[in-house]
Amino acid sequence: MGEIQSLIDRAQTYLRSSQLLLEAGDFDSSVSRSYYAMFYLAEAALLAKGVAFSSHKAVITGFGEHLIKTGELAKDLGKELHRAFDKRQLSDYEFRSVITREEAVELVAAARTFVAAVVSHLQSKV
C-alpha cells in the first residue's frame, strides 16, 4: 500500500495547490494541478487493481476500462478525468493563458469530487 498511499498523498497536496493557485489568479496552473490530483488518484486506483500504465492517455483509458466500465466508479468521474486532461493540455502547452477563472473553478470542484470518490473507493477496498 506504500505506493498507493504516496499517490493519494500527492493527489491531496496537488488538490490543495490547485485551490491556492486559483485564489492567486493563476488559472492555467490551477487547472494543471487539478488534473494531476485526478491523474495520481487514477494511477492509485489502477495500482490497487494490480495494473499500471506508462502514459497519461493509457492511464485515462485504463481507468475507464478497469474502474468505470466495470461499474466500480461513476461514469461522470471518467468524463471529468478526460475533460481535465484536455484542459491541462491547453493550460500547459498554449503560448498564452487560455483558461478562464470559471473553467478553473469548475475543474477545482471536479477534482475535489474525483479525489473524494476515488479515495473513498480505495479505502473501502482495504
Strands, helices and their partners?
Layout: H1 2-23, H2 27-48, H3 56-68, H4 75-93, H5 101-124
Please give a quick description of this structure.
With 126 residues, the chain is mainly α. 79% of the residues lie in helices and 0% in strands.
Describe the structure.
- The longest helix is centred in the last third of the chain and has 24 residues, at 101-124.
- This protein has a single domain (2-124), classed as Four Helix Bundle (Hemerythrin (Met), subunit A) (Up-down Bundle), CATH 1.20.120.
- The N and C termini lie close together (9 Å).
- It has helices at 2-23, 27-48, 56-68, 75-93, 101-124.
- With 126 residues, the protein is mostly helical.
- The protein has five helices and no strands.
- What is the CATH topology classification name? Four Helix Bundle (Hemerythrin (Met), subunit A)
Beta-strand residue percentage: under 5%
Q: Please mark out the parts with pLDDT under 50 across 5 or more consecutive residues, or reply none.
A: none
Q: Which series of helices and strands comes N to C?
A: HHHHH
Derived structural class = mainly alpha
- Average of pLDDT: 95
Number of separate structural domains: 1
What percent of residues adopt helix (DSSP H or I)?
over 70%
- What's the Cα radius of gyration? 14 Å
N- to C-terminal distance: 9 Å
Number-wise, the strands total 0
Global shape: globular
Q: At CATH's second level, what is the architecture?
A: Up-down Bundle
Largest sheet: none
* CATH top level assignment: Mainly Alpha
Tally of contiguous helical segments: 5
CATH superfamily: Nucleotidyltransferases  domain 2
